[in-house]
Amino acid sequence: MADNTKQTDLNIAASKPQPNECPARHKMCDDKSKAVINMTREAFDKMMFAICPRPAESGGLLLGQVGSQDVSDFFFDAGGNVTGVSYSPDYLTLNKKMKEEWIPAGLDMKGIVHSHPGNLDILTHEDLVYIRRLLIANPDMPMFVAPIIIPPEFRMRVMVVFRDNPDSAVEARINFF
Asked: CB atoms < 10 A from the CB of 176, how many?
């Protein structure tokens, strides 16, 4: 993800309803070295089949029920700026859909997934800077889910960035539900 200072961040905090307390299965485990993301198989498949055939740095938005950390849907960002070495989300379209469609349907952002070239399966410094900006803009997010897809290998490495340590990513595992 690119840190494009000319763009306005995907800022949906003002339009989000306050989340309710989550059931225990939706919370991340206390030991952040063993982070678990609950995700539907449908969201996973949608992500992989939308991003893997495309050039590196393609991406999209991870969505789930307000008040939950679960990822239950994926939206491919066809309007994002993809250069092969950077991905900048189409924040205008994503903000509009968030306000007009997803929030009214009880969904909000859980993170962003994008692909990297070669076999680079870690978040870059630029990715972490952008994620930090999104965490600041969305104070109700305790963490940001940021998987990296490696298209030639049809592989995903799930990373999360916690609000209390936005300068580093933690590897997570997926629990399908």
From this structure: 11
